[in-house]
Amino acid sequence: MGTVNPRLKLRGIPLQCLGLEGKLMDKDDNCTMMPPELEVLTRILVDEHLNELMFNGHQHAYAEREGKLQPITSPFKNEHDFEEALTLITGMPNTVIIGRLQWDGMLPNGSRFHITRPPHSPDYATLSIRKFMPKHRGLESLVVAGALSKKAGQFLDACVRARVNIMISGSTSSGKTTMLNALCSRVDISERIITIEDIPEIQLEHPNWVRLVAVPDERGGTLRECVVGSLRMRPDRLVVGECRSAEALEMLQAMNTGHDGGMTTLHANSSKDTLTRLESLILFHAGAEIPLRSLRRQIVDALDLIIHLKKDRNGKRQVEEILGLESMEGDIITRTSLFKREATKNDSKLLSTGMVPKFVERFKERGVPLPQYFFDPMALEE
Questions:
Q1: 375 part of a folded domain
Q2: What is the dihedral of CA 173, 176, 179, 181, to 10 degrees?
Q3: Contact residues for 186 (Cβ-Cβ < 8 A; gap 6+)
Q4: Does 66 share its domain with 180?
Q5: Which of 325, 336, 363 is nearest to 155 (CA)?
Q6: Tens of pLDDT along 284-319?
Q7: Residue 5 covered by a domain
Q8: Of all helices (H) and strands (E), which one includes residue 340?
Q9: H/E element holding 150?
Q10: Domain holding 197: CATH number?
C-alpha cells in the first residue's frame, strides 16, 4: 500500500472513492446534529432564508439571503473564539485538507464549508459555509419561485423521463445543484442512480441511490476514477455533481456508450460559453491529443440539452436559456434555443421559442406524452 501524501489528507473516512449510499445525510442519524461548541453558527444557520455564510476573520461576517449579500454582526467575540471554531471544524470527519492552508468539507448538518488560513489568505483566516437545504425543491417549486415557466418545467420533466442527456451550466451559486436535485427527483423509482461528487450536495429520496464521493489520494479516488468505477456498478442513471477536470471526457464517453439519461453541471458564464468551457476542460485535462473536430463530434453525440442558469440583478436564481444540441456544420456545433428568458415590463419570463428539439422522437419511444401542439409556435404558452 502506498504512503499517503501528508499535504493531502482526509479525516474520518477512507482515502478512496467512497460509496456512501446516502448515509451522511440520514436525518435520523445523530451525526447530523451540530456540536454544542458551534452553537454560535447554528443560531445563524437555522435561518430558513440563509443561503451562504462568510467570515473574513472573526470581526467581519456576511450572509447571503435569497440571493442578496449583506453584512451581519459576527457572533465571535475575539480571534481566539474564531480559531477554536475553525480548529473544531477542521477536525471533523469528512474534511479534506488541501495542502496545509485550505480545508474543504461538510458540517454534520450537511452544509459545505471551506477554510483558508494565513499566509494563503494573508490578512486573516476565512470561513465560508454554503448551507445545506433539507427542504426538497422539485420542478414545481422552481416554477412557483419563478425560476422556470410552467411549460419549461413540463418539458424538463419529460426530458428526464425520456432519458435525455443534460448539462446544467451557470456561474457560482446560480442554482445548478438545486436544478440537478429537482431533475433527479423525477427519475423513476425502478432505476438505479449513481451520483458522483467531490463534496456531497445532491440529496435524493430514492430507494436505489448510491453516492460516490471523490477523495484526492495517492492511490486514486478522483472524480474521473469514480466515473470509471461507477460504470461497473450497473447504473441506470449516472449523475456527476460537477465536471471540472478529466472526468468530463469520461462522462461524455459514458453517454456515448449506452448510458443515456446522464446529468451533470458545469461552471460557465453564459449558455454560449458552456461548450467552449467543456472543450477547454477536456483538452487541458484529458492527457491525450484529441482533434477539436473529433471532440466536438463526441460532445454533440453525447449531450442533448443544456440548461443555463443565472442570477438576475436582484440575486434571484433563474433559468436563462434551454438549448438543444443539434448537429455539426463543418467544425461548428449547431444549437437551437428552445426556451429563452425575455424581459417584461417589471420582471422577465422564460418563454418557449417554438423550436422542436432533435430528440423529439425519443418522447414517443419512451412513452412520454406531451400535448399535441406543445412545440407549435402559435401556441407558445398556456
A1: no
A2: -100
A3: 138, 139, 156, 157, 160, 161
A4: no
A5: 363
A6: 887 668 899 999 999 999 999 999 999 988 888 999
A7: no
A8: strand 332-343
A9: helix 150-161
A10: 3.40.50.300
- For residue 343, the enclosing domain spans 139-365
Q: Is residue 17 assigned to a domain?
A: no
Nearest residue to 349 via CA among 358, 338, 359, 339: 339
- With 60 as the cut, is the pLDDT of residue 148 above it? yes
Tell me how many degrees the CA angle 205-209-214 measures, rounded to the nearest 5: 115
151 and 298 belong to one structural domain: yes
Mean pLDDT of 226-248: 91
**Please, where are the H alpha helices in 286-371?**
292-302, 360-365
pTM (predicted TM-score): 0.81
Instruction: For residue 74, give every residue at least 6 positions away whose Cβ sits within 8 Å of its Cβ, in sequence order, or none.
Output: 55, 58, 59, 60, 61
Residues 353, 234 share a domain: yes
Residue 377 included in any domain: no
Q: Are residues 345 and 208 in the same domain?
A: yes
Q: How many domains does the chain have?
A: 2
Long-range pairs for 112-119 at CB < 8 Å and ≥24 separation? 112/199, 112/201, 113/89, 115/86, 115/89, 115/90, 117/86
Last residue of a domain, one of 111, 130, 149: 130
Place of cell 406524452: 369
Q: Which residues contact 344 (CB under 8 A, 6 or more apart)?
A: none
For cell 406543445, the residue is 374
Cα–Cα distances (Å) from 123 to 29, 61, 118, 374, in that order, read: 38, 15, 7, 56
CA–CA gap between residue 183 and residue 202 (Å, rounded): 11
Together in a domain, 188 and 122: no
The vertex-193 CA angle with 191 and 197, nearest 5°, equals 170
